[in-house]
C-alpha cells in the first residue's frame, strides 16, 4: 500500500510540474503591436494634410486641402472607429479655401477654416455644423487653438501681428510683449492657461497667458534654437520640441516642464521636425520621422533617454510615404498623411498602431 501511495504521489507531482507555469517552458513574449494601413477615400491629388485629432477609438477628424486647378479646396475626413469617410456637409465645403487645426471642445468639434480668404471657426455639435466668423480678415492665419470657454487665432494684417481671442460670445484683440514680432503658434490647456511661441528681436521666445496678459514665460531655450511645437497636457506637463543649430548643423531637442523646472534632452532624432509630436497611450512621446525606406513610413518613440523606431506597412510601388499628423485614439495611435505611388501624385494614407 505504501508503495502504491508513493507512485500516486509521484504522478501527481509530475502532472503538476507539467501544467505549472513555473515549471513549464517560458512562453514567447507577446508580439508587439505593429502599424497597419487604413484605407482612405482618395482626394484630388496633390493634397496637403493639416491636422488630426481623436476622441477615443471611435471618432477622429483629419483636415487639409486639395490643390485644384482653380486654387485650394478644403478637405475633411472622419474616422468612426471602423473606416475613414469624407465629410462635405460643412459650410463652405465647395468653396475655395483650406482647413487647419481641429480640436475637440467639450462635446463639439472645432476646426479653423480659411473660407476664400476669410477666417472662421467651424463648430460641429449634435445639431450639425455652424460657423463663427472672425471679427476681421487677416493677411495670414498662422495658428488656432480652442478649449472650453476660449479660443485663439494668431496671424497678421497690415498693422502687424494679431492675437484674436474668443470667449464664447465676443472677440477681442490681445496684446503681446513689445519685442514680439510674430506669433508662430498657440496652444491652450484651459481658458486661463495658454502658451505661444514667437519671434522677437533677439530670437525665439515662449509666451504664457495666465488669464490676464501674455508674458515671457522665461523658458531657458537652448542657444541658437527655434521652437516647432508645444505639447500641453491636462496634468500641466509641458513639452517643447524644436531644433538647435551648432555650426550650421541642426539637432532636435525636447524640453519638459514638470510644474517647477525645465529639463532638456537631445534624443537621437537628428534634425526632425517635431510639430506632429503626441503623447501616446503608453506614456511615451511619438512622432513621425524621415524614413530611410521609400515604401514605408517611419515613427520614433521617445521614452526618457531611450529612442526607438518602428516602420509602417510596406506599400507597393510607393516612392514617398509621409505621415503628417498623429493622434492618440484610446489605446492606439492614428496617423494621417500622404503616400506617393510611382507614376501618380501624392494622395491620402492612414495608419494605426494597435487597436
What's the helix and strand layout?
Elements lengths: L1 H18 L15 E4 L8 E8 L5 E9 L2 E9 L4 E3 L10 E9 L2 E8 L2 E8 L2 E6 L6 E8 L2 E8 L2 E7 L4 E4 L5 E11 L2 E8 L2 E7 L4 E3 L8 E8 L5 E9 L2 E9 L4 E4 L12 E2 L5 E4 L9 E6 L2 E6 L6 E12 L2 E10 L5 E7 L2
Antiparallel strand pairs: 1-28, 2-3, 3-4, 4-5, 6-7, 7-8, 8-9, 10-11, 11-12, 12-13, 14-15, 15-16, 16-17, 18-19, 19-20, 20-21, 22-23, 23-24, 24-25, 26-27, 27-28
Account of the protein in words:
The protein has 355 residues and is mainly β. The protein is 5% helix and 55% strand. It has one helix at 2-19; strands spanning 35-38, 47-54, 60-68, 71-79, 84-86, 97-105, 108-115, 118-125, 128-133, 140-147, 150-157, 160-166, 171-174, 180-190, 193-200, 203-209, 214-216, 225-232, 238-246, 249-257, 262-265, 278-279, 285-288, 298-303, 306-311, 318-329, 332-341, 347-353. A 4-stranded antiparallel beta sheet has the order 1-28-27-26, with no helix packed on it. The chain has a 4-stranded antiparallel beta sheet with strand order 2-3-4-5, with no helix packed on it. The longest helix has 18 residues, at 2-19. The protein is globular and about 55 Å long. It starts with a helix and ends with a strand. The model is unreliable at 1-30 (pLDDT under 50).
Mean pLDDT score, rounded? 91
- This entry's quaternary arrangement is single chain
Distance between the termini: 59 Å
Structural class: mainly beta
Task: Please give the share of residues in helix.
Answer: under 10%
Total number of helical segments? 1
| General form | globular
Output the helix-strand order.
Answer: HEEEEEEEEEEEEEEEEEEEEEEEEEEEE
Number of E-state strands: 28
Low-confidence stretches: 1-30
The main pleated sheet reads as: 4 strands, antiparallel
Spatially, the strands of the biggest sheet line up as 1-28-27-26
Amino acid at each position: 500500500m505504501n508503495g502504491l501511495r508513493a507512485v500516486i504521489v509521484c504522478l501527481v507531482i509530475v502532472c503538476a510540474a507539467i501544467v505549472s507555469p513555473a515549471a513549464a517552458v517560458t512562453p514567447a513574449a507577446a508580439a508587439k503591436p505593429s502599424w497597419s494601413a487604413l484605407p482612405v477615400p482618395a482626394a484630388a491629388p496633390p493634397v496637403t494634410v493639416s491636422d488630426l485629432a481623436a476622441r477615443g477609438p471611435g471618432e477622429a477628424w483629419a483636415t487639409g486641402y486639395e490643390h485644384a486647378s482653380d486654387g485650394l479646396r478644403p478637405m475633411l475626413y472622419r474616422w468612426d472607429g471602423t473606416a475613414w469617410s469624407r465629410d462635405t456637409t460643412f459650410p463652405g465645403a465647395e468653396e475655395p479655401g483650406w482647413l487647419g487645426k481641429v480640436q475637440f471642445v467639450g462635446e463639439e468639434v472645432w476646426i479653423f477654416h480659411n473660407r476664400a480668404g476669410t477666417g472662421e471657426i467651424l463648430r460641429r455639435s449634435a445639431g450639425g455644423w455652424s460657423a463663427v466668423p472672425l471679427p476681421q480678415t487677416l493677411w495670414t492665419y498662422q495658428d488656432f487653438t480652442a478649449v472650453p470657454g476660449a479660443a485663439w487665432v494668431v496671424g497678421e494684417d497690415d498693422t502687424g501681428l494679431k492675437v484674436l481671442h474668443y470667449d464664447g460670445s465676443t472677440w477681442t484683440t490681445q496684446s503681446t510683449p513689445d519685442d514680439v514680432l510674430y506669433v508662430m503658434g498657440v496652444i491652450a490647456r484651459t481658458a486661463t492657461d495658454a502658451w505661444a511661441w514667437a519671434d522677437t528681436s533677439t530670437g525665439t521666445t515662449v509666451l504664457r497667458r495666465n488669464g490676464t496678459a501674455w508674458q515671457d514665460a522665461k523658458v531657458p531655450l537652448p542657444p541658437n534654437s527655434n521652437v516647432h511645437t508645444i505639447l500641453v497636457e491636462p496634468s500641466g506637463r509641458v513639452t517643447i520640441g524644436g531644433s538647435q543649430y551648432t555650426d550650421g548643423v541642426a539637432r532636435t531637442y525636447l524640453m519638459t516642464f514638470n510644474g517647477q523646472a525645465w529639463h532638456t534632452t537631445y534624443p537621437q532624432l537628428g534634425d526632425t521636425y517635431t510639430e506632429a509630436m503626441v503623447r501616446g497611450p503608453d506614456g511615451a512621446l511619438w512622432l513621425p520621422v524621415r524614413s530611410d525606406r521609400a515604401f514605408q513610413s517611419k515613427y520614433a518613440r521617445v521614452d526618457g533617454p531611450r529612442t526607438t523606431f518602428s516602420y509602417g506597412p510596406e506599400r507597393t510601388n510607393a516612392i514617398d510615404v509621409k505621415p503628417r499628423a498623429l493622434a492618440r485614439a484610446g489605446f492606439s495611435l492614428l496617423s494621417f498623411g500622404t503616400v506617393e505611388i510611382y507614376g501618380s501624385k501624392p494622395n491620402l494614407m492612414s495608419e494605426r498602431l494597435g487597436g
